Amino acid sequence: MADVARLAGVSKATxxxxxxxxxxxxxxxxxxxxxIANAHRFQINATARSLSRRQSNVVALAxxxxxxxxxxxxxxxxxxxxxxxGLIAGLHEHGYDLLVIQIGATDTSWVExxxxxxxxDGFVLLGAHCTARHLEALERRGAAFVVWGLDSxxxxxxxxxxxxxxxxxxxxxxxxxxxxxxxxFIGGPDREQEVRDRYRGYAAALARAGVxxxxxxxxxxxxxxxxxTARMRALLERRGELDxxxxxxxxxxxxxxxxxxxxxxxxxxxxxxxxYDDIFLAAxxxxxxxxxxxxxxxxxxxxxxxxxxxxxxxxxxxxSMPAELVxxxxx
Length: 331
Prior knowledge:
Elements: H1 2-8, H2 12-19, H3 27-39, H4 46-53, E1 58-64, H5 78-92, E2 97-103, H6 109-116, E3 122-126, H7 132-141, E4 144-148, E5 158-162, H8 164-177, E6 183-187, H9 193-208, E7 218-220, H10 225-238, E8 244-247, H11 250-262, E9 272-277, E10 290-293, H12 296-313, E11 318-321, E12 324-326
Parallel strand pairs: 1-2, 1-3, 3-4, 4-5, 5-11, 6-7, 6-8, 8-9, 9-10
Antiparallel strand pairs: 10-12
């Protein structure tokens, strides 16, 4: 940069401003500096610039260690993959990159480590993967961060959520409208807010229809296919007369359909099934899956927009994505 400044007869600060399109530099000077820089194949050193600005243009997505299984033994969460894709695209539009980091449930040292080393300007967390300790550490440090799937209206951090209560109610109301009354609920971990909200929507729709919640038809596990398979088999053993299933993810719903088919039941003739998320695969199952849509790519874009707004202005925002029922042939 010093060489370009000498050749152009300007200061290093003017070269920096010119190469960054600063309005403080005249158009003629910007053009002359760029021509000299191009002629000498000068490129801005991104690492040096980030150090001088104390800005890395990198955002970290914090996730848990999901175990020590060998690669290929378990499929990653399809919705999280779609969310991450949207997050990457949203950040890329503004010149930011995504770094994926692994965090422990009780460890908070990563907050200081990534901020002090300027390896990340801010963080995106998934509600299922963060704890109160993580949130407290981030707030204590004054870090910029946004959380997916955790209602934070009463807290001082940004969040993006789906309307899980409305989604659970939509799914259950649709099944009731088909004439189903023995409607099973297969949820993820019952400690998660999204799961609790979907159950509340399920229970509210049943109550509105005058149907009492049957606790034998309610089962919680994880979002993994293996867990949903086990839960569906156990439900059939307890209540073989069930006539519908509302599952808290599309992957769980697809696993439930496979178990129902193995048991000789037809979907939707004998048992109707509704999933959640509307991942890409949902439209291509057999039968195509009726589900509650919350767009993963859109969620990722909204998370990127929320965090970058906070980095630029300090503003905290809360966004709730509406739930939409997508009716296909499984229910």
